[in-house]
Specification:
By secondary structure, this protein is mostly helical. It has two domains: about 30-190, CHAD domain (Alpha solenoid); about 195-330. It has ten helices and two strands, in the order αααββααααααα. Strands 1-2 form a two-stranded antiparallel sheet. α4 crosses α6. The radius of gyration is 22 Å and the shape is flat. The N and C termini lie far apart (about 50 Å).
Amino acid sequence: MTPARGQRSAPAPDEVGLPEQPQDEPASANQAEHARARIDRQVRALLSHQDGVRDGKDPEELHQFRVAIRRLRSVLRAVPTLTGDAPSSGSEHAAVNRYTATDLRDELRWLGDVTSPVRDLDVLLARLHDETAGFDDAEQAAVERLTSALVRERGTHRIALGRALSSNRYRALLTGLAALATGNDEGEASAPVTGTMLVDSLRKPYRALSRAIGELGDDPADEQVHALRIKGKRLRYAAETTLPAAKKSDAKQLAKLIKSTQRLQDILGGHQDAVVAARRVRELAAEQPESLTAFVAGRLAERELRRRTQARADLPSACRKVLKHGERLG
């Protein structure tokens, strides 16, 4: 696809400093080599989805772009000692920039923040579209009045996202990540991967999730459930990061943990989507004077609250499975 005037299309991998072919991840690789190979794959994922994100026609492009961001942050959190060097752009001399995992995690947080509003609105608009597919013409017109403000809001956030993807800051982030993927570390990160090291890298996110589950109570606030979702994501992506380097005995248990955290994320994601949809529909309805619009909004909000109730009913079982599959990390 061709980007609009003034916008940059996604660079080729070699234009940001990656090799032509993805890095292999041999079984004998050390911790740094596993991390670099994973960074390599996720940077290529960013590049492969970038033009689709800019185009905005398929929301799945932005979803996968954000998955790559989260996986990159998980790798950099697991191996914070990684560094990499890259030539300074625009310099007539042999200037070199040194990139660190900590600095790039902060930049990935920025990129996640820029993409989040568009993704949230993509989910909400798609949810409302599917939910109202069987409404009659008058009700559909009421829905359009409700969602017109969301469409305008999405357009505003998409402009900001397009500018971010065209910025020197984003290009520097890609260059820095590629430098980490192709660098050569010595010291702690070059040590052989051991089972103890893998367990230790997961212990902190598992304990954080376990504590949050224990504090839920019988009727937790929506904000508390959302915080649990964030902790579950961190554990899931940390487990995915360690899986390629795990021994067979560890890999089997890790696969079960990943599967159970995925299920937990599905439930918690559905809960959050229902909470947000119900709140936004009510806010939009308050701005509309027509009685039919208010009636339609009430129907939609009621359906979302039923989904919220179902998600809460499914939550305890999903939590128990995560705790069971991660109990050795306690």
